[in-house]
Each structure stands twice: as C-alpha cells, then as structure tokens.
Write a structure and sequence with these properties.
alpha+beta; 2 domains; six-stranded antiparallel beta sheet; 10 helices; 14% strand
C-alpha cells in the first residue's frame, strides 16, 4: 500500500513500470493492520474482486477490520499517477475510491474480471498499468525535479527556482500532481527520510539532525501528527 509499513504479510518488488513498485499484503492471522503512512504516492489496488485507487494521504490511513484479507497493488512514483488515471491528485486526497468512479464502468468490469481470472493477479494488475502508461503521455520531467529537490531537503523557494516555476505555478502544479502543495509534500518526504534513517538504527537525535528537523522534539511532533501515534510506538510496530 501507499506508505505501507514493514509487516510479516507484506511483500514488494520493483515494477516493470519505471518508478513504480508492485506489492501484496496478506493479513492471514487476523491481526490489526499497520498504518499506511503518507508518502506522496498513489496506488492502484486489487481487493476482493474490486479495483480501487488510493489517493495521496495527508495523514495515516488505517484499514478497517481484522478478518483475513489479501491486497495487491501498484504504487506509482509521486506525480505519475494523475496522468495515468486521468484525474488531478488533489481530487483523490485522503480517499479510497472505486476505479469505476474514474474510468468507464464497463472497462473496469472487464479489467477486474481479467485480474480475477489471472493465475497471478499482481502481474495482471501490473499489465493494466503498463498498457495505460503506453497510451498516456509520459510524466512531465519537471515533476521529478520537484520531488528530487524536496527529497534532498531544499526549501520551497529553491525548489521553485530549480524547476523554473514561480511560487504560484509550483503550488498549482503540485496540487494536481501530488495532491497537496510543496510545503506539505516536503514535510511528508522528510518524514519518510527520517523513518528510513531511524529504522537503520541511528539514534533519534541524530536522525532528526540528519533529515532536516530542528530537533528530536520536532521529529516527534511531526510523526504524531502525520502517523497518528508516538514515534516510539511506530518504530516498535514497523
């Protein structure tokens, strides 16, 4: 899932679609799912015979229920899904919607039947995305420059300059491509960097310093606001 945490039933690999990741998540024990954290990405999902889209999150998403369940998905690189899906990212912010709400229902029904009948539903889902990408113009390279700059900790002003955009245009382009403005995207990408560093065993104070937080308390506040739980609990569960 988008921003999915490490769990026993979660597996992922690089997709043949550039920049994307395909994944499966199986909750075979009935244990409560881990939170799906914001990461600037969008996903095409397969679950219980349905095709769905996970929009860009601004806060942790908790899947409901504890029953045995299996998901498959393809997680698109930040900024690349709106062109494939034909909808601005901000229209799907913090939402999970049926693909049939975005594409013709007959088309989605046919695709869902193909995935359901496939020996490997994940591979079939990947083929859908690759065919769609083949028929769609490639993502604007300026979006990659925006993500790279913000991921490196650049300021919004420096990012706008590097992308050759004015502040208002950068904000407008970011809403359409990522689902939120550049400041929010920068905050989400910084959180993901910090969690990756912390999970590698780096002390939290050093993690905060390395990833652009004012101090450990600042890191802890952002984790609580974006992940919905204390940093110590998040790291213990992931």
């Amino acid at each position: 899932m988008s921003g999915a945490q490490v769990a026993a039933g979660y597996r992922e690999r690089r997709s043949r679609l550039p920049g994307a990741v395909v994944w499966t998540n199986t909750n075979a024990t009935g244990e409560k799912a881990l939170p799906v954290l914001p990461d600037g990405c969008m996903d095409l999902l397969w679950h219980d015979g349905r095709l769905l889209v996970a929009g860009p999150d601004t806060r942790a998403y908790m899947a409901e229920g504890r029953a045995e369940t299996r998901w498959a998905g393809i997680r698109f690189a930040p900024g690349s899904a709106p062109a494939l899906l034909g909808v601005p990212a901000h229209e799907l912010r913090d939402a999970r919607v049926e693909l049939a709400d975005l594409w013709p229902s007959a088309t989605v029904r046919r695709l869902a039947e193909q995935v359901g009948a496939a020996e490997d539903p994940l591979a079939a889902l990947e083929v859908i995305a690759m065919r769609r990408a083949y028929d769609t113009d490639p993502p604007d390279p300026v979006l990659r420059r925006i993500v790279d700059a913000l991921s490196a900790g650049w300021s919004v002003a420096a990012t706008a300059e590097a992308a050759g955009l004015g502040a208002r245009v950068l904000h407008r382009r970011s809403l359409a491509a990522f689902g939120y403005g550049p400041k929010t995207l920068a905050r989400i990408l910084r959180l993901q960097r910090a969690l990756a560093v912390a999970r590698s065993g780096v002390p939290l104070a050093d993690t905060a310093f390395r990833t652009g937080f004012a101090d450990q308390a600042h890191l802890a506040r952002d984790v609580r606001e974006l992940a919905g739980m204390p940093l110590s609990e998040l790291l213990a569960r992931s």
